[in-house]
Amino acid sequence: MIPNTNYRNLKESYLFYNISQKTKAYLEKHPGSHLYRMGIGDVSLPLCDAVIRALHEAVDDQAKKNTFHGYMPECGDPALRKTIAKYYKKRNVELSDEEVFVSSGASDELGDILDLFGRDKTVLIMEPAYPAYVDANIIAGNKIIHMPAGKENGFLPMPDVNINADVIYICSPNNPTGAVFDYKRLKEWVDYADRIGAIILFDAAYEAFIEDDTIPHSIYEVEGADRCAIEICSLSKTAGFTGTRCGYTIIPKELERDGLSLNQMWVRNRTTKTNGVSYIIQKGAAAIFTEEGQKQIHDNIKIYKQNAACLMEALDKLGIWYCGGKNAPYIWMKCPDNMGSWEFFDYLLQEIQVVGTPGEGFGTCGEGYFRFSTFGSPEDTKEAAKRLVGLLSK
Predict the structure, then answer these.
(1) What's the angle, vertex CA 228, arms to CA 254 and CA 362, rounded to 5?
(2) In which region does residue 353 sit, left (phi positive, over 0), alpha (psi from -120 to 50) or beta (all else)?
(3) 285-324 tens-digit pLDDT
(4) CA 355, CA 374: separation in Å to the nearest integer?
(5) 3-class SS of residue 91
(6) Hey, is 389 helix, strand or coil?
(7) Are 327 and 178 contacting, i.e. CB atoms less than 8 angstroms apart?
(8) Domain 49-290 has CATH 3.40.640.10
(9) Residue 355 in contact with residue 35, Cβ under 8 Å?
(10) Of 188, 249, 201, 266, nearest to 228 (Cα)?
(11) Domain 5-47+293-392 grouped into CATH 3.90.1150.10
(12) What is the Cα–Cα distance from 36 to 48, expressed in whole angstroms?
């Protein structure tokens, strides 16, 4: 056996493990205590009624010979691909059905997509960052350029003419910071990538939370992106599919390198490595894009946005710097009194039983910062915000 020795280069994934161990220890010492969990980015509201009905109908279809479905097309159900293309058209983004690929979720796709680039590539990752970006590229043996971001640039770094990369990761709205690129800034990244021949991997998992017209939902709203960008989207936070698993990837036919079409390469990859997303899941996903489904999922998103408003109001009262919240489900705050991020985690847990995510877990640039997720219940969020103000006003 010849193992992939790149696994030796992975750092121990301690972030959520440490959070789990610390909260477990607290509850063992304080049995019966209630923790206000605003750390993990998992949703708390159930799937909307339109999706549930579609899932039930699909299950029933599988019980009858004339409606039974076996293997689905590897690149996605043609009807769903067409539906997603129409969804983009509402934002004046013209896609053909063949440019849409149905996936089992953004996390899976962000790792699998590296197959398109071979090995020993140079990858630019803006930090703080979703840890899987880094780990997937370490496993692939790629060279990683860590581009630091901070308060001084609103956690929105811009291109550096002295840096050349083959692949560039952009997440907007960002996880963990909640920062978002406007059209002008995103256009600078598109032009930069086009100039140096790089490919942008645009993580649009949180696009449904954008409420500002100056913020693009898709990188393809920016001229020239179809020549240099792949967009990866998820239904997890858009429609609560964290436990259901479905998303989609856009690879324009215009996107070519060295005479090869990345769209056709991905068709070949999917037909080689997958048997497609299940019929039942795709039927549920299609219901999201109906008029009824869109209303229902945005009703749920409004609840998460109300949670964000509640937390932002608390931080405003305290005079604490933060970004995110308005166009994203995450709030990224500066730890008070120059506390370290893990120190602040322990302080909140012990004093007011509030659990968030230490920024250090998203890279060294996250030290001294803290992430709150707005996916919890409104009741817990209101109480956590109240406790936060009470504690930090002292």
Answers:
(1) 145
(2) left
(3) 999 999 999 999 999 999 999 999 999 999 999 999 999 9
(4) 12
(5) coil
(6) helix
(7) yes
(8) yes
(9) yes
(10) 201
(11) yes
(12) 25
